[in-house]
C-alpha cells in the first residue's frame, strides 16, 4: 500500500530546515508530529524524600538536557546557590552547550564525553574523589548505574523528572499509513491509550534495538528499522521505504 500519511511520535521540529519537512515536500506525503510521552518534573519535596541534599555533591553527571533543566529548577525551588566550584560531567557536546543556559561556560569546570556514557566514564574515573549526583528520569538505562558502580565511586541517583504517557484520545479515529517510534516508552504509550490497537495495514517505523524489542514484544511488525548502514537516520529510511512502495 502506498504511503500518504505519517505520524511521528515526537514534538514538531523547531527549525524550518528539518529533514522531515524536506521529506514531506519531496515525496508529497503528510507528516504530523505528536509526542506520545512527555516529561513532568518532581517537586523539591519529592527530592527531599529521596534524601538528596544538593550541598553534599561536588560534581553533577548530566546525560540529557532534561536533566540539566530539572537540576537547576530544583536548585531554584530549594533556594540552593549552585557553587562556582561544582564540576559538570556531560555525556555529549550538545548537553554541555545547553548547560550555558544556566552557567557561564568558560568559568566552570565542565568535562565533555563523546556521545556515549561509557566514553564519559573515562573522564569520571579521573575524578574519583568527587561526590557525584546523577539527576535523571525514572526510566534510567540499566547500563548507567552498572558502569558507575563498577568504578567504586561515591555517587547517588536522584529522580528529578518522570516520563509520562500523553493523552492521545483525540487520535482514536485518526489513521496513518506509518507510525514512527523512537523509544519503548512510545510503544507503551500507544497501547496505554489504545489497548485494542490492531496494526492491520499500518506500517511501524522504529529507531534503536530497544524500541524494536518493545514493538515486537507488543505484537507489532516492524516494517522500518533504523539505523542501518544504508539508512542511518529515520528520514532516510522513511524516504527509501516510500520510494519503494509508492512506485508500485
Amount of beta strand: 15-25%
Distance between the termini: 9 Å
Quote the average pLDDT: 94
CATH architecture of the largest domain: 3-Layer(aba) Sandwich
Residue share in helices?
A: 25-40%
Q: Outline, from the CA principal axes?
A: elongated
How many domains make up the 3D coordinates? 2
Q: Figure out the total of helices.
A: 9
Radius of gyration: 21 Å
What is the CATH top level name of the largest domain? Answer: Alpha Beta
Structural class of the secondary structure composition? alpha/beta
* Main sheet makeup: 6 strands, mixed
Instruction: List segments where confidence is low: pLDDT < 50 over at least 5 consecutive residues.
Output: none
**What's the β-strand tally?**
11
Oligomer: single chain
Tell me the strand order in the biggest sheet. Answer: 3-8-7-4-5-6
What's the SSE pattern? Answer: EHEEHEHEHEHEHEEHEHEH
CATH fold assignment of the largest domain: Rossmann fold
Amino acid at each position: 500500500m502506498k504511503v500518504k500519511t505519517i505520524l511521528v511520535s515526537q514534538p514538531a521540529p523547531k527549525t524550518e530546515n528539518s529533514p522531515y519537512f524536506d521529506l514531506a515536500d519531496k515525496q508529497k506525503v503528510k507528516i504530523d508530529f505528536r509526542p506520545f510521552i512527555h516529561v513532568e518534573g518532581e517537586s523539591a519535596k519529592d527530592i527531599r524524600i529521596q534524601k538528596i541534599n544538593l550541598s553534599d555533591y561536588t560534581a553533577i553527571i548530566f546525560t540529557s538536557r532534561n536533566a540539566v533543566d530539572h537540576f537547576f529548577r530544583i536548585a531554584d525551588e530549594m533556594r540552593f546557590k549552585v557553587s562556582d566550584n561544582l564540576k559538570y560531567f556531560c555525556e555529549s557536546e550538545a548537553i554541555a552547550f545547553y548547560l550555558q543556559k544556566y552557567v557561564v561556560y568558560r568559568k566552570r569546570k565542565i568535562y565533555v564525553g563523546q556521545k556515549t556514557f561509557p566514553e564519559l566514564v573515562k573522564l569520571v574515573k579521573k575524578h574519583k574523589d568527587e561526590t557525584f549526583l546523577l539527576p535523571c528520569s525514572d526510566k534510567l538505562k540499566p547500563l548507567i548505574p552498572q558502569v558507575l558502580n563498577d568504578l567504586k565511586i561515591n555517587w547517588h541517583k536522584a529522580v528529578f523528572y518522570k516520563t509520562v504517557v500523553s493523552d492521545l484520545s483525540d487520535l482514536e479515529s485518526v489513521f496513518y499509513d506509518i507510525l514512527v517510534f523512537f523509544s519503548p516508552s512510545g510503544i507503551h504509550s500507544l497501547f496505554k491509550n489504545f489497548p485494542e490497537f490492531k496494526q492491520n495495514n499500518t506500517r511501524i517505523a522504529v529507531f534503536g534495538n530497544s524500541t524494536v524489542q518493545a514493538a515486537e514484544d507488543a505484537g507489532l511488525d516492524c516494517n522500518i528499522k533504523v539505523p542501518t548502514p544504508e539508512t542511518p537516520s529515520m528520514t532516510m529510511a522513511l524516504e527509501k521505504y516510500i520510494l519503494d512502495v509508492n512506485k508500485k
